[in-house]
Structures are given as C-alpha cells and as structure tokens.
Amino acid sequence: MKKKLALAILLSGGGSNAQAIMDACRSGALDAKVRIVGADRLSAGGLDRAAAMGVDHFVVDYKGILQDTEASSVYPPPPDLDLGDVLKKQHLFPEDRASEEGCVSEKVRHFFMRRAAAERMLLDALLPFEPDLIVLAGFMRTLSPYFIDRMQQPGELPKIMNIHPALLPAFPGTDGYGDTFRHGCRVGGCTVHFVDYGEDSGPIVGQAAFPILPGDSLEDVKRRGLEEEWKLYPSCIQLYAEGRLVLENRPQRSGAVRRVVRVLS
Ligand code: GAR
C-alpha cells in the first residue's frame, strides 16, 4: 500500500480547517494522515478538535516567549541560530533587510531572535513525527527563515503550506476577509500557497472565489469563505500527496523571476 502523506498542522484558533483536513483523511478523500497538531496558544479550540480525533497535540506558548527579554532570558535563542543569515533572507520587513547583520534595527533583530526561540520549540515538537508537509491552518504567526530552512532545502518542493482568506496577491496580512469586505470587492476568495520568506507571498497552489452580494455583511463573507476553504485545502494537499505539484520559474514584467506552481495532470 502507498505510504500516506504525514501531515503536521499548526493553528491558532477554532480549527475548522484542521477539522476538514482530519475528516478528509478519515474518509479517505485525502491520502494523508494527520500525525500531530500544534498551537501557539493554549486557548486554541483546534486543540480540542485534535484530541477528539485522537491526534497528538502540543502548545508552544508564543506570547510568553515573545515577551521574554534578553536580560532575563528564560527562552534563549537557539544555539544554531545564524541571525545574520536570517536577517539577510527575511522578507517580512522588506525595508529593514540586512546586507550585513549590523544594518537592521534593534526591533527587527529582537523580533527574529524571539521568533527563533519559539520556532526551535515548534521544531522540537514537530520533527519526531517526521512530517512530509506542514499545514498552516489559521496559524496567526509568521514563520522566519530559521524555521523554513530547517524544514526544506532550497530547490526542493516546499514543505510548508498555508491557507489565506483572500485572493492573493490582494490583501495579504491578518484580516483577509475583512480587508476584502472593507474594500468593497464584489468577489472574495481564499488561497492555498507555499510559504516563503515573505508574508503570504509564496507560490500559489490553488484558489477558490465566491460572490459578495449587495447586503452581505462581513460575517456572511467569512462564512462563505470558510465553506470554500474546507473544500480547497484538502484538495490542494491531495495534489501534493499525488506528487502533482512542481515549481517552475516564470519571468515577470519587472525582469524578476518568480517561482510558480504548475499542476501536473
Ligand atoms: C481561516 O479563515 C484562515 O484562512 C485564516 O484563519 C481562519 C482560521 O479558521 N488564516 C489566516 O488568516 C492566516 N493569516 P479556522 O481556525 O476555523 O480554521
């Protein structure tokens, strides 16, 4: 029998996407198994869903780790953190990227040191489960190059997927449906993409759109969007499981080259 894709899910909230993925695994619609679910906060409802499905789960308390100060460090940065390398690679603060470590602001340095401390704990919890794919399902934390580089090698097919509540590249950030609604869009949508060093900027795997009708409230948009997410995410993970996703370089008008996903038939 073909080996099932081993999934690790990270989440911050209610976990309806995690539920859809666990259900799809259980029904056989998805050739995958959720090995572990992790959250950045104890109050994440998705942890209860994992427990109810008999899936192992853990919490890394980001809040406490990010508040830690260097003077009284309870959670020191990991010994293998190369901060200069992370600062050069990151695209989360594009105006504050380093050609040399010394150039960036103290705030950005501190941000990535704290992230790495939390991300080391994530890795320690995740890696024993040997995930083939990390699935971000409402995980409201950006991942830094420290974490990403320990999950995937350059040139390999990426191993971290995210779902975003907007039709990227429009409305990246923390409130995709809210931004779509406030902008007055007539169409909303959701996007599954691979994670790169920027915010919601990685290669797009799949998208689903839905109409926004006159009289719709933000709650209507969120509800319709989530219903699309629950179908889209398992279908994109299934493409990954089937080995049908490849990356190719596509030149952009600016002259830059962008990595895009091609789906093999
Ligand atoms: C989903 O709408 C997902 O797209 C969004 O959080 C929600 C999680 O819902 N993710 C992001 O905004 C990531 N930046 P859920 O906990 O019910 O799956």
TrEMBL record:
> What biological processes does GO assign it?
'de novo' IMP biosynthetic process
- The EC class name is transferase
Q: What is the purpose of this protein?
A: Catalyzes the transfer of a formyl group from 10-formyltetrahydrofolate to 5-phospho-ribosyl-glycinamide (GAR), producing 5-phospho-ribosyl-N-formylglycinamide (FGAR) and tetrahydrofolate.
| Organism annotation | Desulfobotulus alkaliphilus
Annotated N(1)-(5-phospho-beta-D-ribosyl)glycinamide binding lies at G15, S16, N17
- What's the encoding gene here? purN
Catalytic site: H164
Q: Which GO terms describe its cellular component?
A: cytoplasm
Q: Where is this site: Raises pKa of active site His?
A: D200
Pathway listed for it is: Purine metabolism; IMP biosynthesis via de novo pathway; N(2)-formyl-N(1)-(5-phospho-D-ribosyl)glycinamide from N(1)-(5-phospho-D-ribosyl)glycinamide (10-formyl THF route): step 1/1
Protein name, UniProt field: Phosphoribosylglycinamide formyltransferase
Q: Name one Pfam family in it.
A: Formyl_trans_N
Q: Where is the signal peptide?
A: 1-20
Q: Where does (6R)-10-formyltetrahydrofolate bind?
A: R97, N162
Molecular function as annotated in GO: phosphoribosylglycinamide formyltransferase activity
What's in the keyword line of the UniProt record?
Purine biosynthesis, Signal, Transferase
Which InterPro entries does this chain map to?
A: Formyl_transf_N, Formyl_transf_N_sf, GART
